[in-house]
Every structure is written in structure tokens, then in C-alpha cells.
Amino acid sequence: MLGRKKWISSALVLSTIASLTLSTLEPGFQSEKAEASALKIQPLESVSLVQLSVPNNQKAMDKLSELGIDLTHRMHVENGMLEVDAVVTPSEMTMLKLYGITVKETLITESQLNQRAAERRAAIQQEKQLTSSEETVNILRATHFTNQSDTFLYVEAKSTSGASTSTILTATWTENGTEKTATLQRIVDAGEYLYHSFMLPVAEIPSEVTIESSLGGTATSKVTEWLGADKPDKPKKHYVKNFVDHYMDPTEINARMENLVKEYPELAEIVEMPNKTNGYRRQAQATIGTMQNAAVAVTSKAWGHEGGNAITLELKKAGAADEPLSVGTSGNKITVTLATDASGNAKSTAKEVVDLLNAKASNLVTATTYRGNAGNGIVEPATANLSDNLKAPASVSREPAAVKAIRIGKHRDGSKPGVLSYSQEHAREWVTPLVSVETAERLLRNYAHDKDTRKLVDNLDIFIIPSMNPDGAHYSFYDFNSQRKNMTNHCSSAQSDNGYRNSWGVDLNRNHNVGSAFDGYVGASTTNCTSSTYAGPSEHSEPESRNLVWLANQNPNIKFAMNIHSYGGYFMWSPGAYTPERETLPRPSAGEEAYYWQASDHILKEIKKHRGTVILPSRTGPIPDVLYSAAGNSADFLWYEKGIYAWNFEVGADLWNKETQRWELVGFQPPFEEGHEEAMEFSNGLLGLIDVAYDYSRDNKAPKSSITPNGGKYDDEVEVSFHTSEPATIYYTLDGSRPTYDSQKLKLSGTREGAESLAFNKTTTLNWFSVDPSGNVENSYEPGKNKKYNSKTFVIK
């Protein structure tokens, strides 16, 4: 706090100082020889916030008061002197120096204060501009849903003045004859205003909700059901499910998939991907010493299971005075004899021991000082057995692993549309492979007697990768439950002692080449090898991520993908990353976005059927709109590089506790009873995606489109909106030319909003055509060739 602001004439200061007698100051608080009255009167001066160094006594403080110095509330004692913050002019600084009071540090200058004031005025002006224009409130969603144990009202609304924090949106609705209200929360990400929203349990579903803004804008919308029910399912006789009964590590999962293929060789096969992992293996290590500057970290040259675990290291003091430092090896035993001084005390430093080990025992180990320090401390005698610290049983191989997919389909030759599901990119997400296993079991074991299953398997080419990250997953099961990354250690020697072993690895969902951290996108680290979102030393540096690329390249028939993660109950799609300025990767066209939403509606309804779990509307949508930026994620690679409609599950939706009126999280490794339920409901969802792919494969009906208004003559600017019979991408031109696939696409009007409209303020001919996701073109138009496109002219007088 600055206290009162002071703009003081030096004349007043000088007249005050000239009348003072210096005898009131204690010894040591003497003026310099210059006379205060000799200083020239200066015009009005600027002020600065400074820290003064003042003798620590009451008389000195009294003198500051007498001088009229503007003090803040902050002061403390440092080295026998008072440090006091004050607002002073340059002349006052000079006068204070005459009395032994000096400026220790300038904290804020007046120019800086003026700059902040200007920033404030600019912000106020911007706010005025936002609020002075006529405000529009748009209700994006007004929905209700019942989630397991309670019924909720969820509303999203957007104000044209929402970028201003002073814009308050309030919802009003009627519930059991009583008017209810709620204030909407302003949702902002990386500085960008997205929308306002609220979600509350309700005793009765309202028919409509009204949103009013503090600036006067208002809007009303009917309340509809989120994930409204499809036609009731006919009971399925003999449809079997519930195939998972415990969490499974990748070794178990691979055996399960291979047994399925043996049972159903006419319907399934194993696809072994070419890039083997680094393996569930580590070098053996030990850190000897308790003090950092006197510690030695040793790493075996051999993998732990290939001999490194058998190495022992002994540091012992020489038995006599003035003995030199020496190293000897016998088989797997290394003995370091520490040098002694004239008194017989050990005198070898950690750095000296490290250098000698690297020179004399390099066939067995490499040695470093502790995390790169100078190592100038004296090493104490000690012994250590090196270990790779891995705890998995012998049934888990330590060798590089082949990542495997099970491919399911009556025709597995690329002639049918492909669907890809992959899980456990992040090792600790134990539920996700269960979703994959359960789905594979259902598809194969229900094929013979369930016609709906049979139509999926007969008409699609389905790839399921239960564990993308087998090394990390094994490490999570047996060594460190919270392991997220793979096990490849790209750290330098300074970060490679065994105390860092739970932080090594690469986040496989940050290692891809689209929207990556290497290209400046947010949400991963390229420099911190122990970061939980370390993107690796380069794009696609990891064999696991290269396997996904290989599979997509080898199978261009793949049109749909699902990346299964946990937890939180999200359902998302591209774009998945943005820059520090929150510029996202290119948004899908309005038609593509509509298709994402349409497919999502079906998939999420299938999830809900198991136990009523509703994926919340606030957690459904493009990744940056509902979660965060994830630079270099795999779904973005599939969408932007391969044109695959790619979604992301985050299984494990929060559970609503009706008694406490709170949402309760489930975590990465919930009790299996909960994990089983998550596997069941999200297997439903994955089969829902496969349904979407089936409908895609059968779609041969071209879309139809229209515009409002439908051409004609207008006195003023006209705004044109498009309507399509199904989700479809609109390609259009405004210069009279034939539209092609290179023409402009109709975009979204904004975050969480629908298609844009086109505004014409001069005579314009609009030519366009639409294409649905299955590739059906409106009116059988051959883009750029014949004239079967739509055309309307708007004449503006």
C-alpha cells in the first residue's frame, strides 16, 4: 500500500528543512556540510516508491515525519538499520541524504505507475466499448439429464460482452411453482472468454430458462434432454458381456488376445507392430553417500537382469596414512580404496572417486557426482549392491516388447471401413485396457447368435490396441502406480540416478508431430525430461508413437478412431492444442463439427445405458474448449494428417453423491468394482462408435442444402445462413466461379457455436455444394466440372 500520494513543491520541503535544528539527531546521524538552504527550488517533480535505509531509532523516524516524507505501511529492521518504503521526489532523496538517510532501492518509478494507470484506462475503455454496443445473449445449451442418482439442469450461454468481467449472467426458471435463480460462471481459458455456464440438481425439470445480463441483454430457451433416449432397445436374447473380472497387465492382455484369435481365426488376427519398445528393463544403480557433495551415483553398463544386479561396490579407507586412491575389480565386485592423509583420515572427494571409477571400472559401470554437483565433499566408507529396482515377476519379460493389436472383421483386407481403438498410452490408466478387452470379447463371442454384432463384424475392419505402452504399464502395476509415461530415459547423467527413476520416460500422447511442443504449442515440455508431460527429444522419437503412425499408414481404410484415457468422464475431439496466444489448430468445418456432435450423441447414449452415467455437456466437445491444450497428442495426428475422425474418451466419470451433494472423483485405479462398471459402460460407448462407422459404411444418400434468405434484391446488407439435411461440409465461392474442394469451407461462428453466416453488402453470386462425411456429394455434382452446384445471386441496391 502506497499511503497518500504526494505531489509536493520543493519550496515547501526546503523551508521545512531549513527550520530544523540538527542537534535533535543522535550521534552517527550527522548532516553533510552542504547547507539545505543553498539548494535551488525546483519545479514540480515526479515521485518514486523507494526503500530507505534509516538509523534504527525513534528520533530518526521523527525526523522523517518532520520532513513530511510520505511513508507506506511497510518497514522492517535489517542489519541494525530500518528499511522503510516511502514515496519521494528526487529533491527529497537529496535532502534525506544530507541527514544520513539513503535510498537503498527504487521499487517503482512514476513512469511505471503512469504506465499502469494507462493500462487501466485502456482496459476500462475496452470494457466500455464492449458494453456500450448493443449486447446479445445467446443460449448455446439448455439441457437436463439424470445421472445415476439425481436430475440436473445445465445451461451454457454466451454474451457479446462476455470478455468483460463485469458482465454477469443470471438464469431464471420455475421449479415446482417457485422461481429459481442462479448466477452463471464465466469460463475463460488462456485469457480467452469461452462462455458462461452453470449446473445444478433440480427437483423438477423446468420447461424453459431465461438468461439475463447485467447489461440488459436477455434470451430464453426451452430446456431439452441431454442425450435424449433413442428408440427403446429390443431385449437381446443371449447377448453376453462382463468378460473382465480383474485389472490385467499387458502380459495378461496379450495372452488374452492371442487366445481369442485361436478361438476365432476366421474373424480375428494379431497385428504385431514393427517398432519394439525399449523394454521393461533398467540398468542397475546405487547412490552411495548421505551428503550431496560427498555422494557417488553408479550405473551398470549391463541391464540389471543381464548382470548389472550382480555388481557390488565397496568404498573402504586405506589401512595406512598417506595412501593413494585406487580401484580394483574382481568379477562383479568393485573395490575403491580411499586415499588417506598424514593422519590416516580418508581424503578422497566424490569427484575424485567418480573420475577413477570411470577410468578403471568402465567395463562395469559409469559414475557421476550426485545430480551434477561439484562433488568436493569427502567420501565416507560404504558398500552397495547395485539393483535395477524392478519388482515385476519373472513372467514379465525384460526384453523389448512388441505392441500388438487384435484385428477383427469378416473381411480384413482393407476393403471395409476401418475403426481403430487404442488404450493405455498413459501407463497408470488401468481401466482403459479393460474397455478394449471387453469390446473385443463382445464382438467375437456374440457374432454367432447376435445379428447386430454380426453386421458390425461383417462390414467393418476393427483394430483394437489394448495397451500402447506395455513397458510403462508393467512399471505402473509392479513398481510405481502413478507412472504416466513409458520407461525410456532420455535424461542426462545429472538426472539419471536411481532417485529419479519414477520420473523418467516420455508422454506418448505428447510425442506426435501435429501441434507439438516443438512447434510452439502449449501443454508439453521439450526441455524437462522428468516432466509428466515430457514430449521426448523429438517428434515421434518413441517406438510406441511410431507404431500408431505405422498402423494408420498401413491401413488407409481406417476412418474412425477412439483414444481411450482416464479419468474424469470427458468426450473430446480435435483441435487438441493451441499456442501461448490461444490460437488453436484449425477448427473442423461447420459440417465436420456437426458430425462430431451427431456421432457423439449416439456414443454417449450408449454409455448411459449401462448404469445411467451421463458424460456432462460441459465435458463434451473439442479438447481446448472443455479441458486444456495437449500439444502433440495422437488424435490430432490422426485427424490432421490422416483425415480420421478421432475422439478421446476419458473414462471414469465423477460420481454424484446425493447425500453430500458433491461430485466424487474415481481416480486412475479405482476399486475393481468401480473399474468394472467403467469398463462396461465405455465398452458400450466404443461399440457405439463402431455403430457410427457402420452407418457411415452404409450411407449412400447425398445431402441437401438450402440458404436463408434465398437470393433476391435487398436495400441493405443481407446475412445468409445455410441449412443441410444432415451434417455436411459446405464449399462455396463468392466470385462467380465453380466451387471445388479447394474453395472456402463454411466455418464455425465461434467457440461452442454453430455454423457461421455470410454477410453481403454488395451484389454477390453465391455458388456452393455440400458433401457428407461418407463422401456423398449434393446433386451428384463433380466439383469443378459440371454445373450441378447451387447458385443464388443477392442484388444489393
TrEMBL record:
Residue ranges annotated for the Peptidase M14 domain, each copy included: 366-693
Keyword NADP: no
SMART domains: Zn_pept
GO cellular component: extracellular space
PROSITE patterns according to UniProt: PEPTIDASE_M14 (PS52035)
Source superkingdom: Bacteria
Active-site feature positions: 650 (proton donor/acceptor)
Coiled coil segments of this chain: none
GO MF term set: metallocarboxypeptidase activity; zinc ion binding
Keyword Hydrolase: yes
Cofactor(s) recorded in Swiss-Prot or TrEMBL: Zn(2+)
Record-stated family: Belongs to the peptidase M14 family.
Biological process terms in GO annotation: proteolysis
Entry keyword set: Hydrolase, Metalloprotease, Protease, Zinc
Name the UniProt record assigns to this protein: Peptidase M14 domain-containing protein
